Amino acid sequence: MSRPGRSEAPESSLENLVSRTLGEEAPESLVDLLPVLTSDLAEIDQRIQQVLRSTYPRLTDAATYALSAGGKRVRPLLMAATARALGLDSARSIYSLAAAFQLIHTATLVHDDVIDHAEMRRGRPSMPRAFGLPSAIVTGDYLFVRAFELAAEYPRSIILRCGEACAALVEGEVLQDSSRFDLTTGREHYFRVIERKTAAIVAAALGSVAEIAEASAPVQEACEHYGRALGVAFQIRDDLLDVYGDPDLLGKPLYTDLREGNPTLVSLETYGGLTGAEQDEFERLFVQRRKQPGDLWRLRSLSDRTTAAQTVALAAESWGEQAVHALAALPNGPYRTLLEWLARGAAARRF
Amino acid sequence: MSRPGRSEAPESSLENLVSRTLGEEAPESLVDLLPVLTSDLAEIDQRIQQVLRSTYPRLTDAATYALSAGGKRVRPLLMAATARALGLDSARSIYSLAAAFQLIHTATLVHDDVIDHAEMRRGRPSMPRAFGLPSAIVTGDYLFVRAFELAAEYPRSIILRCGEACAALVEGEVLQDSSRFDLTTGREHYFRVIERKTAAIVAAALGSVAEIAEASAPVQEACEHYGRALGVAFQIRDDLLDVYGDPDLLGKPLYTDLREGNPTLVSLETYGGLTGAEQDEFERLFVQRRKQPGDLWRLRSLSDRTTAAQTVALAAESWGEQAVHALAALPNGPYRTLLEWLARGAAARRF
Prior knowledge:
The structure is a homodimer.
Chain A: H1 10-22, H2 28-31, H3 34-52, H4 57-68, H5 74-85, H6 95-115, E1 120-121, E2 124-125, H7 127-131, H8 133-151, H9 156-178, H10 186-212, H11 217-244, H12 247-250, H13 256-260, H14 265-273, H15 276-286, H16 293-304, H17 308-326, H18 334-348
Antiparallel strand pairs in A: 1-2
Helix pairs in contact in A: 1-3, 3-5, 3-6, 4-8, 5-6, 5-10, 5-18, 6-8, 9-10, 10-11, 11-17, 11-18, 14-17, 15-16, 17-18
């Protein structure tokens, strides 16, 4: 099976990927880092390809399909940049770990798409739609298993960081599931969900890199803090894009969270910003299990009548700034600047 | 949430469990081993309880529910018995590993129940039915994650054995899925599926115990061989019971494989044993995606017209004997006798 989204010259397409992630307005000083990071991402990619080889082409195909839809590969990029920001001459020692985290991330996307009945991801049919539900479930399991085999290359403390982050991730999913179709759970609950579902794994990834780089305890904590805040910013922005993004840029239809009844910050802010009959209508439509397209459009237009979109965009930016702030503990240099840039990018991205 | 199937005195109910697994006709010499094995299983259980503690009661509840339906706990019993047969004074060094394998086994049962749309397991609603599909998927993931955290206590070679077995297991699922509603895949394919789906993990569990016990290479191989053959016997018998078992003893309805179109040895032998119009009818009904109860009864009655049940029972017994044969490499003694007894039991059990 060919891997859609990858050209025949993987390095040049990786370079595209990195520059796309950095955006077109990235400062010159960051563009200079591209060749090094491109080569890091290629090495991480190779680790992934190696570990996915199965005697069963069907499984390799399914896993490869899931991974090639993995999108921006932000996590490996963050890990490589953190390793270099901490002065690791070569990022070699974190390649397998970055591959492991990318596999875990992809495994959860695959299982998420099963849970959310998602039809599309990154402009292509989702895994469950392309390969069927049974294959999607077992391919997710396979990705988890291979991730842990990669993590087994590291000391026990790193494996446990990885395991704890995965457990938090699952807890986040369960917590999210417990609040479906319920607008009364509030912001605190929302932040509890996304800190576990999204941020914990980024924090663990970067904390692990700092440990491998033998950074001091405060720097390890700063890396974790940076990862956690960036993860929160990323998820808030993700939830905003689900209602206010461009579906062509996103490669998937809008309003998944509205349809599935996930009370994201957008819905909570909208609900809080409406009054009287409009508030009642928003709640009535939101808690409906089966929504028609017209219901989704109406939810969005009710949201337009509040300042929810601006408030949520601002919240993402604040968390991005918090991430930048945490970086003060790291040595100054171009890779720290890159990390600052990536945090602000995660908070303000359009895809 | 209370845990159904467990009395308030866990030790005495564990004792029941062990004796139920050994059956009522177990020879006196084996009954003498009960207190030791009961205490081993209690220790393994405790490791499981410890690692499942989550800050989210809902997740702990779901995981505990899945585990308490785990049934016969054959794998931990086999691991403890193997450790003792190999002369480990205390089975302490394998407790965490046994807990890990039990968690992996349970994770796959939970995901299997999602894939097979199973309503019941061990006399209770299945996980997906009791907690919903999203919780069932993430609880399975959670069990995998905690299993790998437990496995992280061991050297890398053991973690890799564990990982490879999980990968084989997933490959087995994919392979099985590829042959649904297809009777032409043949016996060789069937054995390839069950060796991966069921036997590889038992082989890895017992091979790992032998490695931890620092057994010689031939003894390690014998333990793996024993585990693999017992696993195959167990699965053949399982597939037979799905058509010819007692649903009350099994705690679940019959004919799941027929309904889901899994070409087990029973169906393959039936299909091979029929001719003409009856063979055509069997195939026509078997490949139907949506079967009525009447279709399932008809498939069973066509099976009755062949020697499939006897042939399959004999195949299970032969694999059980192969397992017994492999044990010749182990030191003679009561625990080896127990392992022989368990292999024959797996091949001839009624539940």
